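Recall the central idea of this unit: under ordinary conditions, the amino acid sequence of a chain determines the structure it adopts. In this exercise we apply that idea directly, starting from the sequence alone.
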Amino acid sequence: MELSGMSSCIFCPLLLLIIQLSFSFSLHEGNETDRLSLLAFKAQITDPLDALSSWNVSTHFCKWSGVICGHRHQRIVELNLQSSQLRGSLSPHIGNLSFLRVLDLEGNYFSRDIPQELGRLFRLQSLVLANNTFSGEIPVNISSCSNLLFLHLGSNNLTGKIPAQLGSLSKLGSFVLQFNNLVGDIPSSLGNLSSVQKFFWTKNYLRGGIPDSLGNLKRLKYFTADENDLSGTIPSSICNISSLALVSLEQNQLHGRLPPDLGLYLPNLAYLVISWNHLNGPIPATLSNASKFFFVDLSYNNLTGKIPDLASLPDLQKLLVHDNDLGNGEEDDLSFLHTLANSTNLVSLGMNDNNFGGVLPEIVSNFSTNLKRITFGRNQIHGSIPAEIGNLISLVALGLETNQLHGIIPSSIGKLQNLGVLRLDENKISGSIPSSLGNVTSLLEVGFAQNNLQGTIPASLGNWHKLLILDLSQNNLSGPIPKEVLGISSLSVLLDLHDNQLTGSLPSEVAWSVGESWISEGFQKQVIG
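Accordingly, the structure predicted from this sequence is:
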């Protein structure tokens, strides 16, 4: 028994030595595998900036540029060569970097297929290949990278379908595929990505419906799938994702009604863009429950009915609903405007091309001084323009064309020093053109055509030194055309004065032809008197 115990003790150091030698050999073998894999990677690319100049035999690979090794085992854990102008294909030997956690090659010129061998990188947490020219399909076996947190493949030339197998990546937090050529349906299996927070799929050729299963993604914050061919209705299950902050689905083929509970259970929703689709029905009254809204764009659809009360949206900056069928031509169609009085961050109201009736309320003049754009063109609005509209000192565009407005042009518009576009054409506006408008020297486009304007053209309009378009046609303007107006050198696109009562002669440098065009300083301008 003593001999047996003694022999065991004698062999203990020997066994320990064997284990140490075995570990050392294994470590050396692993290190050599990493080194050779990097050299194989380098062999398939060109390096115009010499970003890989340190990759040579005289330097340990852990000190090569873009390479980070683990402290304990000296194995490569990160390869980051973003924005290095590298060209070529991605070597399949990258799949031998078995300790790799981060592969970031964003902003280069890698082409050809993404190698299937990446599926062997079981420790990989971040795969960033965006902004290259990779082609081919997304490798199915990336689904084997079960620790993946970031999968960024945007801005490439990838084709084929989104692999359904990627739905097994339960740790994935960010999934970016935007600006590719992907086709097919959105796999319902992606509803299993329980950790995902970001879906960025803009500008592909994805089709079919938005799967109901996406309503299971309780951590999803950002969902963009603009400029695809998605069809069907917006599933009501989306309203279950209380974490949603941004939804952008513009330029698809979505139809049907907006979910009636759209704002009810989405307390964090701040950005909603579903323009350029085929949605119909009303804007849900629950929209006002999403109190963090700052950007809403529902334009270019077939929405009907009235715009609901928006008083609970204090952070609202942009409300764009133009090119729908909203409003009924009734007096209370614009009553929602009263509920925007406390939206102190309001920047843009886009209401063109609807059926809004009623009067533009005076309260508009008291809206946020941050307001830059008001466009209510091509509706059925009557009454007069609010007299104190000039309080909105940040306005760059005021569009009220093609309505039934009457009364006069408010002289307060002369206070709008930032105004670039002023469209009041095709209304029933009367009175004279206020000379105070000459103070608005930033104007690029002015349209007053087809009204009942009278009196003379103020010489002060000659201060519009940036003006490109001036249309005063089909009014009752009289008197001579001020030389100051004819002297606006920037007026290069359109000057239309036809169907007025203008008199006097034109300067000799102006080649005049009634009913046709005249040319001055190389520009063609319509002056039909």
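The longest strand covers residues 76-80.
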